[in-house]
Automatic annotation (TrEMBL):
<keyword id="KW-0449">Lipoprotein</keyword>
<dbReference type="InterPro" id="IPR005586">
    <property type="entry name" value="ABC_trans_aux"/>
</dbReference>
<feature type="signal peptide">
    <location>
        <begin position="1"/>
        <end position="21"/>
    </location>
</feature>
<feature type="domain" description="ABC-type transport auxiliary lipoprotein component">
    <location>
        <begin position="26"/>
        <end position="182"/>
    </location>
</feature>
<keyword id="KW-0732">Signal</keyword>
<protein>
    <submittedName>
        <fullName>ABC-type transport auxiliary lipoprotein component</fullName>
    </submittedName>
</protein>
<dbReference type="Pfam" id="PF03886">
    <property type="entry name" value="ABC_trans_aux"/>
</dbReference>
């Protein structure tokens, strides 16, 4: 009996795969940077951003009102999220601070004056119409200055704007995180 059920599930999965939605890749538009912040360091290395399992893959997850996560078949991020967010943060931090900022491995001679590590706890669009980015970041330096701060950022996602609004909200949340790190962690 179990084998028949399992075979039926496999057949259903195969049929679903044959009729699945066409694959679509969603890019994240660049959020404009208007903030400038002086910091205490001339060079900053950014370690690869650590993401929760559901956010580290290509699939785009949504949270319903009960907190259950689901995806839309055939909808994927255009780039590996860990890589993309690390590069976005690096670009934003360089634009905001004017410092030499690069993702690790450090591509320049010598050593950076500070290192930033970001560990994301939550990164998803929620049923209440916001994109949430929450976690903790750490700043360390050779001169002994070290900081650890929690962050919890929300960006509205208008219902009428569609799926591209989620990508835009993610870009804005990452930009806002860069502003927060520059203002509170690197000064």
């Amino acid at each position: 009996m179990r084998m028949k059920r399992f075979s039926a599930l496999l057949l259903l999965a195969a049929l679903t795969a044959c009729t699945s939605a066409p694959e679509q890749r969603l890019t994240v538009p660049r959020a404009p940077v208007e903030t400038k912040q002086r910091i205490a360091f001339g060079s900053v290395a950014l370690r690869e951003v650590s993401l929760p399992g559901y956010a580290a893959g290509e699939e785009i997850y949504f949270s319903d009102a009960t907190g259950v996560l689901s995806t839309q078949p055939g909808l994927f991020w255009a780039d590996d999220p860990g890589r993309a967010i690390t590069l976005e943060l690096s670009r934003h931090l360089a634009q905001i601070t004017g410092a030499r900022v690069a993702a690790e491995p450090w591509p320049f001679g010598g050593f950076p004056e500070a290192q930033v590590e970001v560990r994301v706890e939550e990164m998803l669009a929620q049923a209440d119409g916001v994109f949430r980015l929450a976690g903790q970041y750490f700043v360390s330096s050779e001169n002994g200055r070290a900081r650890a701060q929690l962050f919890d950022l929300s960006v509205p996602v208008p219902d009428e704007a569609g799926i591209t609004a989620i990508a835009a909200a993610r870009g804005q949340a990452v930009r806002d995180l860069a502003v927060t790190i520059a203002r509170d962690g690197l000064r």
